[in-house]
Fold this sequence. Notes:
- The chain is mainly α.
- Helices cover about 50% and strands about 10% of the residues.
- The protein is built from 10 helices and 3 strands, in the order H-H-H-H-H-H-H-E-E-E-H-H-H.
- Strand 1 (about 135-140) and strand 2 (about 145-150) form a beta hairpin.
- The longest helix has 22 residues, at about 20-40.
- It is globular.
Amino acid sequence: MYTLPNLPYAYEALEPHIDAETMKIHHDKHHQAYLDKLNAALESQVELASLPVEDLLWQFEEHQAKLPAEVATALRNHGGGYANHNLFWEIMSPEGPRQAVGELTKALDATFGSFADFQAKFVDVATKHFGSGWAWLAIDQTGKLAVYSTSNQDSPLMQQHRPLLGVDVWEHAYYLKYQNRRPDYLAAIWQVLDWQKIEERYLQAVGK
Length: 208
């Protein structure tokens, strides 16, 4: 059975950029619901339920072909939601560098031209994403950095990409504070992203 990770900081720690009430509802209600529905769907799949959720999503196409349709759908929606939120809490903090550091700085410069150019591309992708979903910085199957969005709770892991940074653009992530102003939320999110954490994910992904 999977469990809900505790937030690594207090609900109010990311204010004024993300308010405490949003954090409480997002973590305690939305994330918990994805977890509960994932555990319920995998009750009959003991072997799968013993694997890290990241491994389940990495082999999603293989599992999808073998599982009952309702279980595969739950793995996609609720497994993705569970894993995506695990990452989301991890890469934010009340302190920490607010721009890329270390090896990831070099990789971003080589791929996008500069951190500012990467940031502009990321915001553009996140702003233009239609409906619910996520914006990602990930390492693709060729080992290159890529910026793109996914719908609903789809994870880059399902494409066998390694997610480094994911920003939730579902309305529940920002509506209490920003209402329909997604661009304002996206401007604020850069004030809470912890690039040391994202650098650690990058180094792990590239085997350094």
